[in-house]
Each structure stands twice: as C-alpha cells, then as structure tokens.
Amino acid sequence: MRVLCLTHEHDGPAGLFADVVRQRGDELLEWNVSQGPPPEPAESFDALVVFGGSMHVDQEDKHPWLPGQHDVLREAVERGQPLMGVCLGGQLLARATGAHVGPAPRPEIGWFEVELTSAGASDPVMGALPGRFEAFEWHSYAFEVPPGGVLLASSPVCAQAFKVGEAAWGVQFHPEVTLEMLEAWRAGSDGSAPPVPLEPVGRWNELGRALANAFFDAAR
After folding, report:
1. What is the arrangement of strands in the sheet containing 47-50, beginning at the earlier edge strand?
2. Whole-structure pTM over 0.90, yes or no?
3. Known catalytic membership, residue 70
4. Which segments of the chain does DSSP mark as H helices, in order?
5. Residue 194: is its pLDDT beyond 80?
6. Helix, strand, or coil here: 81?
C-alpha cells in the first residue's frame, strides 16, 4: 500500500504514523505542503493522512497553500479515498466538507480525557481505542461535525473525532506525537504554553499505534 502523509511545519512530522507505515512494509511519502505541492497527486496513493500545524484554517492570507488543502481533502472524500485528518488536518477536513471550524471554548494543551460515542465504539478505526482515554492535545481551534458526518468522540470542551463520507476520519487530538516531538513542542513554546508532563507518552503511543494500524487496515 502507498501512503501519502501531508505535513505543514518542520516540527510537525508524521511521527508515529510514519513508523507504523514502515513497520507494516508499506510505501511512504511524507511531504510538507508549505514548501509546495507533492511530486505526485494525492489520488495516486492508497491512503492519505494530513497532520497538524500552528496555523489556523482561516489564515489563508498568511498561508496561501491552505485553500489547496481544502480542495485535496474535499476531492479525497468525494472519491472515497481512505483519509485521516489530525488536529489541523481534522479541522481542514471538517471545513472542506461543510462544517464550522473556529476558536474552541478554551484551548486544550496537554492531556485531556476523551470519550467515544456509541458510534465511535463500533467504528472500525476509532473502536481500536478504549471507550475512555487520556489523549494528548495541542489546539485552540475546534471543529464541528460536518453535515452527514458522525460524531465518534468528544471531550468536555469540543468534538474530538468524526467520520464523514465512506472512508474519512478527523481527530482533534494527536495520536502521531512521539516523545521527541513533544519535547520539541515544549521547548518551542517559550513558556507560552502550560507545562506538559511527559510520563503519559508511553501509554499514549500504544494507543496511537493501535489507531494507526486500524486506519491502515481499513484503508487496505
């Protein structure tokens, strides 16, 4: 299987998802779209994963590549291409399919409890996670569920996961984050973000691998 992972910043790589793709023996192209379009079109891949970034979906004046991302995600949903959007990627997916995305009631930076809905528990991808779990979050915007979509998970603050179309999932939390990534994000915040403990990362990576494998199994 060929997998395209789209990133937006140098410190926001595919992380654990890239490791899982390689461990499964699949082919990976990881590409930072802020540097230009990937060398092959998204439709030539079997699965697409779109990751996060510090920018917001409505900052098209600062990041002129954002409208192109909306087009890529909307077209992937229309053709039924397996797709997962993570944090900003989930917000881009929500907006591309008609949902409101805007400032969350309050930021979630750190570890927060997330609970699956009954639809999430029976979903072939989100159902790989426990019914209730502590997730790593780093966002101040949030998505609503797109028209025709299904809410799969939520926190007390906002929706945390949805499915739209035949094979597209969006999550607000960060299942891809590794210890090295989290350390870099903490260092790069210059004290503007609350201190984030590192101890839960090991357990979180177990859940991240389970989610990634479930998604790639569904894509296959």
Report:
1. 27-32, 2-7, 47-50, 83-86, 168-171, 159-164, 150-154, 101-116, 132-143
2. yes
3. no
4. 16-23, 66-78, 88-96, 118-122, 179-188, 201-219
5. no
6. coil
| C-alpha–C-alpha distance, residues 170 and 168, integer Å | 7
Asked if 66 and 55 count as a contact pair (C-beta separation under 8 A), the reply is yes
Catalytic option among 8, 56, 139, 174: 174
Mean pLDDT of the chain: 95
Residue 93 gets which letter from DSSP? H
Catalytic residue (one of 108, 137, 144, 176): 176
**Angle CA 181–6–27, to nearest 5:** 95
Nearest to 13 by CA among 62, 40, 50, 67: 50
| 87 has catalytic annotation | yes
The residue from 87, 108, 139, 144 that is catalytic is 87
Q: Which residue has the tokens 């990751």?
A: 51
CATH architecture of 2-219: 3-Layer(aba) Sandwich (3.40)
